[in-house]
Design a protein that fits this description.
The protein contains 6 helices and no strands. The protein is mainly α and about 120 residues long. The protein has 2 domains: about 55 residues, no CATH class; about 55 residues. The longest helix is centred in the middle third of the chain and has 32 residues. The protein is globular, with a radius of gyration of 17 Å.
């Protein structure tokens, strides 16, 4: 089996285990949105970082983790702008989300330039 397939399977198993863990935790506590908060992206990110540490070392994983943090900051800016735009102008959600995607990309690129 190739290394890429093995790595993908490991991400699937680790990510699925973490998602399932938070789903069970959400059943025990309130609010139910707790499972969604830690659902897919953080679980896959943790699986990816674990595999990266094992295969490429902690320095490479630190660079990936920093990139994930910067991407999350850019997404936060995009989500805040989209929320404001939806409240203020009441456009269709698809229109707002698609038209403001350049904010996400722009903030991501600006943060990359700063860190680079």
């Amino acid at each position: 089996m190739s290394h890429e397939i093995t790595e993908s399977l490991a991400r699937f198993v680790i990510g699925g285990t973490i998602v399932s863990f938070f789903a069970v935790l959400a059943e025990m506590f309130r609010p139910k949105t707790f499972a969604g908060l830690f659902g897919a992206a953080p679980s896959i990110a943790l699986a990816t970082l674990g595999l990266t540490i094992a295969s490429r070392g902690p320095n490479y994983a630190a660079t990936e983790a920093r990139s994930m943090i910067l991407g999350a900051i850019a997404f936060l800016c995009y989500a805040a702008a989209t929320t404001w735009f939806l409240w203020r102008y009441k456009p269709p959600a698809l229109t707002a989300t698609l038209s403001l995607l350049p904010i996400w990309f722009g903030v991501s690129f600006a943060l990359w330039l700063v860190i680079r």
